[in-house]
Amino acid sequence: MTAALLSEVRKISTTRLWWVLLACMVVGSGFMAGVVAFSFAFADELGSSSDVSAGMDPRAMATTIYGLAVSFGYVFPAILGALAVTGEMRHRTIDTTVLADPHRGRIIGAKLVAVLPFAALFGLAGMAAAVATGAAGLALADSPTYLDDPAMWGSLGMGVVALTAWGVVGVGLGAAVPHQVVVIVALIGWTQLVEPILRLVLSLIEPLAGVAAYLPGAAGDAMVGASFYSSTGSADLLAPWAGFAVLVAYGAIAALVGWLVTFRRDLS
After folding, report:
1. Exposed, middle or buried, 130 (CB in 10 Å: 0-12/13-18/19+)?
2. 68-114 pLDDT, tens digit each
3. Residue 215: φ, ψ to 5°
4. Is pLDDT above 60 for 210?
5. Which residue in 147, 124, 123, 122 sits closest to 134, CA to CA?
6. CA-to-CA distance for 249 and 38, rounded, in angstroms?
7. What is the pTM for the complete model shown?
8. Cβ atoms 185, 92 nearer than 8 A
9. How far apart are CA 148 and CA 135, in angstroms?
10. What CA–CA distance (Å, rounded) separates 29 from 26?
11. Which residue in 43, 54, 220, 263 has the fewest CB atoms around it within 10 Å?
């Protein structure tokens, strides 16, 4: 297992794609948090005051702003994880991998573990960028940043864990859908369009309102304890560790499907 794990780490670290995705996540998370922080904090001055910003508890607002790295940035570690599988399928290096280690379950396991430090780095960098720009916007508006509150740092830490878990989910999805272009388009479409719409629509249907909390993006938001979507009344969130369990379950189910559908058949 050690040799397989080192091999998978080397496959990720020796390509440029991981740090390109990391740079995109830092820029995207920082930009989103900064824009929302300034729009919330200076809503009155800009003449765009809304019920969302006006009626929100200051601490919830700060948590929501910092959590934008999870709400919108989770697509980046997910894509990284998916590419750990689909990249081999596309370039046919999976043939060499299987010849070197015929235990295919171990190959998937090694990929799931190998992506963890990279996904954790994405989580740390994304949350740091969101905190830097978000706190700057709040501070300029004389709004509390709550960075002296240990509970807030607990929420930020859970955000890092959520983004790390998304790397695992990405590996599972890449195993279940081994076509690189398809899985990337599906991830971007789901995270940026389909799930936000679903969370809004389900919140308007009373018998199904609770279902939205079990969607993967909502599960990640639950780990932070607040989200942009829940702040607009789109849905309630699960408890943080319940969200973690749901998110990991998505990754485990996807990996199992990938092993049964993709890795048990002829890969040549």
Report:
1. buried
2. 999 889 999 999 999 988 888 777 777 777 766 667 778 888 898 99
3. -70, 150
4. yes
5. 147
6. 36
7. 0.89
8. no
9. 12
10. 5
11. 54
